[in-house]
Design brief:
The complex is a heterodimer of chains A (279) and B (92).
Chain A (H helix, E strand, L loop, with lengths): L11 H6 L1 H4 L5 H10 L1 E5 L5 H10 L4 E5 L24 H12 L4 E5 L8 H6 L3 E4 L4 H14 L3 E7 L2 E7 L6 H4 L12 H4 L5 H18 L8 E6 L4 E6 L18 E4 L8 E5 L1
Parallel strand pairs in A: 1-2, 1-4, 2-3, 4-5
Antiparallel strand pairs in A: 5-6, 6-7, 7-8, 9-10
Chain B lengths: L2 E4 L13 E4 L4 H11 L3 H5 L10 E5 L2 E2 L15 E6 L6
Parallel strand pairs in B: 1-5
Antiparallel strand pairs in B: 1-2, 3-4, 3-5
Classes of the chains: A alpha/beta (279), B alpha+beta (92).
């Protein structure tokens, strides 16, 4: 287990490095120490994970966990700014660690080079304060949502496709992903980025919203994006908010939950059915 | 009276690429029927064979989810903006 960082005093170098945050009353020295002591897990070191991780590292989040079992592919470099051309073929967690520590050597980057499943997710997320979702498939989204609710971890969610993005924050008791979408769509009903395409700079817009919301939660400032779904249309340059609330009939966080164990949905073939159920 | 319907990217092929279309109906259900007349295939992307809204598609009137109003029987009034919001999974 990675050790936590808990400085009682900021060094002169830290005061200089983070000066543009520290001088703002919403942050201050106390807030900066909170950031340094915080532990954030990012699911996915790709399109959304890249900008989010970079801004969290720049802000001094002391421990950043990255879950990604993939290696860097040339097609990633149209938008995944954590990785370089020379990294093609390397595990994403490795190239991400180099980028983030080059930016801020004080950040501890913990690589989880795995695919998340019901068998490993609870143990992985236990170590972190906040989870940020940058996954690129429905089964992982539902797994992360359910696990975060069971573990009572705040979940900063984002998703992108084509020229559109969405972002929100799920706080336990204030709604979860299944309050919006109770079950995954059948395969083929909604295309993936590889099938339909995704606008590169879209990642930065939604990723920076996720970084912003994560930092706001750590510092306890501003209004979290809980109960509100931010919709972004890049072609129209249009930002909108839609409201949602905890659905009392939600299968996970409702008044009478029907899903009380994690589900590994089949990622391919036919209708999504549970293949392994574990707590 | 026509209302504005915001069409998500994944459904724009049905409406010749438009981001917004007009629709008419006193309820969401009637509005969907109207959209189906103008843009064949639209209903099948929103409603199952039994006529229920798919779980992976949400419909909002202004900024409220119709599931918390009167579902498909939610009244539609002049000036309302209807948003169709399917689940997006992309993150990479």
């Amino acid at each position: 287990m990675a050790k936590s960082k808990n400085p009682s005093v900021l060094t002169p170098e830290q005061i200089l490095r983070y000066s543009r945050h520290i001088i703002m009353p919403q942050v201050g020295g106390l807030g900066q120490k909170r950031l340094i002591a915080s532990r954030v897990l990012l699911v996915g070191a790709g399109g959304l994970g890249s900008p989010t991780a970079m801004y969290l590292a720049a802000a001094g989040v002391g421990t950043i966990g990255l879950v990604d079992g993939d290696v860097v592919d040339l097609s990633n470099l149209q938008r995944q700014l954590l990785h370089d051309t020379d990294d093609v073929g390397r595990p994403k967690v490795d190239s991400a660690r180099e980028r983030l520590q080059g930016l801020n050597p004080e950040v501890e980057v913990v690589g989880h080079q795995v695919m998340l499943t019901s068998e490993n997710i609870m143990e992985i997320i236990a170590d972190y304060d906040i989870v940020v979702n940058g996954a690129d498939n429905f089964p992982t989204r539902y797994l992360v949502n359910d696990a975060c609710y069971f573990a009572r971890k705040p979940l900063v969610d984002g998703s992108i496709l084509l020229f559109e993005g969405q972002a929100t924050v799920f706080l336990p008791g204030k709604g979860c992903y299944r309050c919006l979408y109770p079950a995954p769509p059948p395969p083929g009903a909604v295309p993936s980025c590889a099938e339909a395409g995704v606008f590169g700079a879209l990642c930065a817009t939604i990723g920076s919203v996720q970084a912003t919301e994560t930092i706001k939660l750590i510092l306890g400032i501003g209004e979290p994006l809980a109960g509100r779904l931010l919709l972004y249309d890049a072609l129209a340059m249009d930002f909108r908010m839609l409201r949602y609330r905890r659905d009392p009939k939600c299968p996970v966080c409702g008044d009478a939950p029907t899903i009380t164990r994690l589900i590994d949905y089949e990622a391919f073939c036919g209708m999504p059915t549970p293949v392994a159920v574990a707590h | 009276m026509p209302v504005e319907v915001r069409v998500p990217s994944v459904l724009r092929a049905l409406v010749a690429g438009a981001r917004m279309v007009e629709g008419r109906g006193a309820t969401v259900s009637q509005l969907i029927d109207d959209l189906e007349r103008r843009y064949p295939g639209m209903r099948g992307r929103l409603l199952s064979a039994s006529g229920e809204l798919y779980q992976f598609v949400n419909i909002y009137i202004n900024d409220e989810d119709i599931r918390f109003l009167r579902q498909l029987e939610t009244p539609v009034a002049e000036g309302d903006v209807i948003s169709i919001l399917p689940a997006l999974a992309g993150g990479g």
